[in-house]
């Protein structure tokens, strides 16, 4: 310290402003630049994607693989598949996530609760490529009989229209795998918010004679609604961008179809990039990057809305 | 509250509804009733399914079908009995408890299934050769993932080297220096950055390196850059949380002794938060080490050893798993076995990192101030 601090010889020689130490200057600048660098990186991601997309947007669509009529024609089935599979995952995972979060925060014995929370977090630790292997090796064959049964008995319902896929590798299977993958993140956020319910509200409800479920419905769920919404949005963001599980489970086609159980399924943007990029050449590389830009914009919008909802309620500082 | 609560039977005039049960005064089911009923229903369902299978009504005995039947019947039975004995409110309560517990068990099913499948299918090739061989000139049996393990370690190490300084300093800026719109913008965009799809990070790294090295570039280091984009926000968020936990009294005490601000941060704040920060970094590594998509795009795949992250393609463990599955040779089973063994290795690495992170938190947590 003595080396960096110039000592005034006497009291009257004190400078009007304290001398800025070199160490302080370097350190604060390093911190500032690192913070700024994050903004630069994010901007660079956007700029590079846009720059590399432009050739695809201006090129003749006849040069693209599969000869779509236009860029929009190429990207629309992929956008549809992305949104559809993510929506399926969300519909299946959200009620489960709320249930698990309630179980850990309000039903499980206190001593067990944390360990059970870790157990759910372990789901997040499994790499996506392993989920892909599992989806195709275990889940698809196991669930195929259910699909057959559904098509035979509920085929009149448009979503379950036949003919059934013989392998079980359908968009519903991909949706289930995605749902499992986004479960931990949604559970974690719901759990945090439920745990922050004011204890006085809960005790007041119980003191008035409410059963535990009535207490949850009156005190916990209304308080946690913003947390549930933002958790769902973050899970949706994950599901939109998830690549390998979908790429491995689906054998994709460029179609727009809501049918859940047929062997012809729309692909997703991310899966299409992963499958096509290694063999892509020329303007097709730009084409794939342009679809990546579309994905980037979609997830950016979803995540921004989610963060906006979370940040509006500052009480949820612990909620990721 | 009057709107959400149904009108009480107790509020009724006497004798108005003889069929309704007053949930305040009616009897309660004993504590063992619900667990006992659940066990009984599961047993019964297994017996019924076994009988049906024996009679040939369904193909073969299916435990899954039995468990589903048992669960559904248990929920229905408990709710009905409670409705009769305890009244509607208590029945709703019991129904929701059953649903919540079922949700938790359902969530554990994929976890158990994934782990057991990986363990069973990965074990046959989880041998010495798997860790000492690359895939060079291997067609069919044999071969290993040494090149992929080396690649994963190198790519992740470079990604950590890039991310940790940037992330840590950004966190220090946010906690110690940051005021005003810039800090708020960084906080917001770090949150947004956590949501960048991994494949987009890969495309970014490709676009960046294609600018320098030309089209079709594949580099291990480009993979590290892609992973850094995913890793930096995680490091920032976890470090920020930990730095915020450091009590302000410690900083003030240091200032009172005349310690410069930067030395306060280096000697007082960082050591206090060190355990939490290291935990966060370990978890961040665990998150990116399993990433497949960006590496598939920018690091490429190869069957040969490559110790240099700055030239040529570099195999990594997740991509190894994917390529073994996606491009099998004539003997598919051999390739699939290698893929499962790779998956097992990957899961062991990730679980070990998670375990280490928890141990660090537990062992090195500072004792004061919490």
From TrEMBL, chain A:
UniProt record similarity statement: Belongs to the binding-protein-dependent transport system permease family. CysTW subfamily.
Major localisation: membrane
Organism name: Microcella putealis
Family matches, as PANTHER family: PHOSPHATE TRANSPORT SYSTEM PERMEASE PROTEIN PST, PHOSPHATE TRANSPORT SYSTEM PERMEASE PROTEIN PSTC
UniProt keyword list: Cell membrane, Membrane, Phosphate transport, Transmembrane, Transmembrane helix, Transport
Residue ranges crossing the lipid bilayer per the database entry: 30-54, 74-104, 116-140, 171-195, 215-236, 281-306
Keyword Membrane in record: yes
ABC transmembrane type-1 domain sequence ranges: 79-306
Sample GO molecular function, one term: phosphate transmembrane transporter activity
Gene3D superfamilies for this protein: MetI-like
NCBIfam families in UniProt: phosphate_pstC
CDD domains: TM_PBP2
Membrane topology according to the record: Multi-pass membrane protein
Purpose of the protein: Part of the binding-protein-dependent transport system for phosphate; probably responsible for the translocation of the substrate across the membrane.
InterPro entries: MetI-like, MetI-like_sf, Phosphate_PstC, Phosphate_Transport_Permease
GO terms for biological process, alphabetical: phosphate ion transport
Keyword Transmembrane helix: yes
Designated name of the protein: Phosphate transport system permease protein
A single cellular component GO annotation: plasma membrane
PROSITE patterns xref list: ABC_TM1
Subcellular location per the Swiss-Prot or TrEMBL entry: Cell membrane
UniProtKB/TrEMBL annotation, chain B:
GO molecular function, one term: phosphate transmembrane transporter activity
The protein's name: Phosphate transport system permease protein PstA
Lineage: Bacteria, Bacillati, Actinomycetota, Actinomycetes, Micrococcales
Transmembrane intervals: 32-55, 61-85, 97-120, 155-175, 187-213, 219-236, 268-289, 339-360
The entry's keywords: Cell membrane, Membrane, Phosphate transport, Transmembrane, Transmembrane helix, Transport
Taxonomy, superkingdom: Bacteria
Function: Part of the binding-protein-dependent transport system for phosphate; probably responsible for the translocation of the substrate across the membrane.
Domain ABC transmembrane type-1: residue ranges: 149-357
Gene Ontology BP annotations: phosphate ion transmembrane transport
Compartments where found: Cell membrane
């Amino acid at each position: 310290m003595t080396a960096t601090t110039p000592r005034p010889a006497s009291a009257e020689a004190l400078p009007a402003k304290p001398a800025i130490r070199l160490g302080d200057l370097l350190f604060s600048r390093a911190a500032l630049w690192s913070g700024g660098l994050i903004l630069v990186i994010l901007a660079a991601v956007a700029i590079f994607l846009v720059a590399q997309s432009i050739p695809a947007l201006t090129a003749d669509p006849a040069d693209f693989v599969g000869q779509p009529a236009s860029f929009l024609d190429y990207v629309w089935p992929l956008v549809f598949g992305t949104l559809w599979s993510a929506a399926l995952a969300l519909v299946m995972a959200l009620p489960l996530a709320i249930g698990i979060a309630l179980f850990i925060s309000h039903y499980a014995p206190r001593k067990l609760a944390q360990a059970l929370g870790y157990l759910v977090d372990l789901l997040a630790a499994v790499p996506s490529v392993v989920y892909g292997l599992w989806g195709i090796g275990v889940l698809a064959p196991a669930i195929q009989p259910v699909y057959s049964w559904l098509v035979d008995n509920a085929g009149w319902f448009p979503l379950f229209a036949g003919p059934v896929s013989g392998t079980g590798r359908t968009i519903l299977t991909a949706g289930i795998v995605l749902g499992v993958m986004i479960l931990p993140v949604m559970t974690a956020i719901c759990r945090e918010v439920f745990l922050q319910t004011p204890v006085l509200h809960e005790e007041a409800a119980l003191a008035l004679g409410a059963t535990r479920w009535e207490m949850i419905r009156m005190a916990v769920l209304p308080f946690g609604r913003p947390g549930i919404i933002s958790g769902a949005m973050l899970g949706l963001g994950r599901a939109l961008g998830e690549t390998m599980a979908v790429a491995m489970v689906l054998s994709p086609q460029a179609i727009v179809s809501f049918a859940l159980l047929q062997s012809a399924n729309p692909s997703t943007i991310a899966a299409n990039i992963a499958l096509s990029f290694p063999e892509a050449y020329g303007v097709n590389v730009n084409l794939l990057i342009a679809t990546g830009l579309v994905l980037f914009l979609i997830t950016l919008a979803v995540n921004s809305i989610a963060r906006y909802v979370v940040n509006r309620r500052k009480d949820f500082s612990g909620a990721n | 509250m009057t709107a959400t609560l149904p009108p009480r039977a107790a509020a009724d005039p006497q004798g108005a509804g003889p069929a309704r049960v007053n949930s305040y005064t009616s009897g309660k089911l004993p504590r063992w009733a619900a667990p006992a009923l659940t066990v009984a229903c599961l047993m019964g369902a297994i017996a019924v399914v076994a009988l049906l299978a024996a009679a040939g009504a369904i193909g073969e005995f299916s435990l899954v079908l039995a468990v589903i039947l048992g669960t559904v019947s248990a929920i229905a039975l408990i709710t009905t009995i409670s409705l009769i004995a305890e009244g509607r409110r208590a029945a709703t309560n019991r129904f929701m408890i059953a649903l919540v517990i079922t949700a938790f068990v359902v969530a554990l099913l994929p976890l158990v299934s994934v782990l057991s499948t990986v363990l069973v299918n990965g074990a046959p090739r989880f041998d010495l050769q798997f860790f000492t061989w690359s895939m060079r000139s291997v067609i069919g049996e044999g071969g290993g993932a040494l090149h992929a393990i080396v690649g994963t370690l190198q790519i992740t190490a470079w990604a950590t080297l890039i991310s940790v300084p940037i992330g840590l300093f950004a966190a220090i800026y946010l906690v110690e220096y940051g005021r005003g719109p810039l800090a708020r913008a960084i906080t917001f965009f770090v949150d947004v950055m956590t949501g960048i799809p991994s494949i987009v990070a890969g495309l970014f790294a490709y676009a960046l390196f294609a600018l320098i090295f030309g089209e079709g570039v594949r580099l291990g280091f480009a993979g590290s850059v892609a992973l850094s984009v995913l890793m930096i926000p995680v490091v920032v968020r976890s470090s920020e949380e930990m730095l915020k936990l450091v009590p302000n009294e410690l900083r003030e005490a240091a200032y009172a002794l005349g310690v410069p601000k930067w030395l306060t941060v280096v000697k007082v704040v960082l050591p206090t938060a060190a355990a939490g920060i290291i935990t966060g970094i370990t978890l961040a590594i665990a998150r990116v080490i399993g990433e497949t998509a960006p590496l598939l795009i920018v690091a490429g795949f190869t069957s040969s050893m490559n110790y240099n992250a700055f030239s040529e393609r570099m195999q990594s463990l997740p991509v190894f798993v994917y390529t073994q599955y996606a491009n099998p040779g004539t003997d598919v089973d051999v390739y699939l076995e290698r893929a499962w063994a790779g998956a097992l290795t990957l899961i062991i690495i990730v679980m070990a990192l998670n375990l280490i992170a928890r141990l660090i938190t537990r062992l090195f947590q500072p004792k004061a101030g919490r």
